[in-house]
Design a protein that fits this description.
alpha+beta, three-stranded mixed sheet, 5 helices, elongated
Length: 216
C-alpha cells in the first residue's frame, strides 16, 4: 500500500485537543465577549470627587475643633494648677495677718517718750518685736503677700481700701485717704484683705460730691 492510499490525519491543536467545529465556535465567542467585558468596565460610574472633597473638609474641621478643645482643656488644667499652687496658702496667710497686726499694735502702744525713758531690758524687748515684725513681712513678701498701706492724701481705691468713716474739715480732697486704721494685703494678684481707712468728707466747699469717691 502506497502513501497515497493513507488517510490523512486530522491536525490537532498543540494542547492535544481535537479541533472540531464546536471548538472553533467557542473560541470565536470567547474572543467576541472579551472586548464587551472590557467596555463594561470602562463604562463604570465615575467617583464623586465633590462629595469626597466635602467629606474631607468636614473631617478636617472636626479634627481641628477636637484639637482646639484639647488645647483649651490643657490650658485650663494648667491655670487651675497654677492657681492652686499660688493661692493654696491664702487661708493660712490670712490667719497670719492677725499676728502681724498684734506685733504692730504692741509697737504702737509704746510712745516715743516712754521708749526713751524705758530701761535697757524694755528697749531690747521692743527691738526684738520690731525685728520679728520685719522678718514676718519679709516672709510675706517671699510668698507673694504684699502690704497695702496708703498714705494720707492718696486716692481712695474701692478695690484695695475699705472706708470705715469720714473725716470732716481736712486739707485733703473729698474721698481721699486721711487715716489708715489697718493695713491691707494682697496675695499674688488677688486681694487678701482690704486696708481699712478713714476718708476725707466733703464739707460743701469747692470739693465736689458729698460721698466717698469710689472711682479707680
Amino acid at each position: 500500500m502506497t502513501d497515497e492510499n493513507k488517510t490523512p490525519e486530522t491536525e490537532t491543536p498543540e494542547n492535544g485537543a481535537e479541533a472540531t467545529p464546536e471548538n472553533a465556535e467557542s473560541t470565536a465567542r470567547t474572543l467576541n465577549e472579551e472586548p464587551a467585558a472590557q467596555g463594561e468596565a470602562a463604562e463604570a460610574p465615575a467617583v464623586d470627587v465633590a462629595a469626597l472633597q466635602a467629606e474631607n473638609a468636614d473631617l478636617r474641621d472636626r479634627l481641628l475643633r477636637a484639637a482646639a478643645e484639647i488645647e483649651n482643656t490643657r490650658k485650663r488644667a494648667e491655670r487651675d494648677k497654677q492657681d492652686a499652687s499660688r493661692y493654696a496658702t491664702a487661708s493660712f496667710a490670712r490667719d497670719m495677718l492677725e499676728v502681724a497686726d498684734n506685733l504692730r499694735r504692741a509697737l504702737a502702744a509704746l510712745k516715743e517718750e516712754e521708749r526713751e525713758a524705758a530701761s535697757e531690758s524694755l528697749k531690747g524687748m521692743v527691738e526684738g518685736v520690731e525685728v520679728t515684725e520685719r522678718q514676718l513681712l519679709t516672709i510675706f513678701e517671699r510668698h507673694g503677700i504684699r502690704e497695702i498701706s496708703p498714705k494720707p492724701g492718696d486716692r481712695f481705691d474701692p478695690n484695695l481700701h475699705e472706708a470705715m468713716f469720714e473725716v470732716p474739715g481736712t486739707e485733703h480732697p473729698a474721698g481721699s485717704v486721711v487715716h489708715v486704721i489697718q493695713a491691707g494685703y494682697t496675695i499674688a494678684d488677688r486681694l487678701l484683705r482690704a486696708a481699712r481707712v478713714g476718708v476725707a468728707k466733703d464739707d460743701g466747699g469747692t470739693q465736689s460730691g458729698g460721698k466717698v469717691d469710689t472711682t479707680v
